[in-house]
Amino acid sequence: MSSEEEEIHYSRKYNDDVYEYRHVHVPMKLAEKFPNRVMTEKEWRGFGIQQSPGWVHYMIHGPERHVLLFRRPLPKEVPENNAGSTNNAEEETSKNNAEKDAEKDASESNAGSEAPTFLRNRFRYL
């Protein structure tokens, strides 16, 4: 048996609208040890399969038990108005605080205003 037949091979990733997929080819002798069900991450890692976090063994293809089928959810898209922002909640809080400070400053500066009564009744001071 050649060393190529004894190695684990990882396919390129492919996807649909919901998931990213890949399949992993393992040696036939190793596949004989697999349970007759999908494996947990701990189980497939125990057989020497190495992938980044998030991959789930989701299907068994009976005729080719040496090919494991994996998938993981695609990352959620960031709305366009949030695209370049690193921390939107922090930015929004900062913006709200700045607006409140500006309103407070404006009301304090107008509190002692000596505008004539007819102007104070007709115009709203900001």
TrEMBL record:
<comment type="function">
    <text>Binds to the catalytic subunit of the cyclin dependent kinases and is essential for their biological function.</text>
</comment>
<dbReference type="Pfam" id="PF01111">
    <property type="entry name" value="CKS"/>
</dbReference>
<comment type="similarity">
    <text>Belongs to the CKS family.</text>
</comment>
<dbReference type="GO" id="GO:0016538">
    <property type="term" value="F:cyclin-dependent protein serine/threonine kinase regulator activity"/>
</dbReference>
<feature type="region of interest" description="Disordered">
    <location>
        <begin position="76"/>
        <end position="126"/>
    </location>
</feature>
<dbReference type="GO" id="GO:0051301">
    <property type="term" value="P:cell division"/>
</dbReference>
<feature type="compositionally biased region" description="Basic and acidic residues">
    <location>
        <begin position="92"/>
        <end position="107"/>
    </location>
</feature>
<dbReference type="InterPro" id="IPR000789">
    <property type="entry name" value="Cyclin-dep_kinase_reg-sub"/>
</dbReference>
<keyword id="KW-0131">Cell cycle</keyword>
<keyword id="KW-0132">Cell division</keyword>
<comment type="subunit">
    <text>Forms a homohexamer that can probably bind six kinase subunits. Interacts with cdk-1.</text>
</comment>
<protein>
    <recommendedName>
        <fullName>Cyclin-dependent kinases regulatory subunit</fullName>
    </recommendedName>
</protein>
<dbReference type="InterPro" id="IPR036858">
    <property type="entry name" value="Cyclin-dep_kinase_reg-sub_sf"/>
</dbReference>
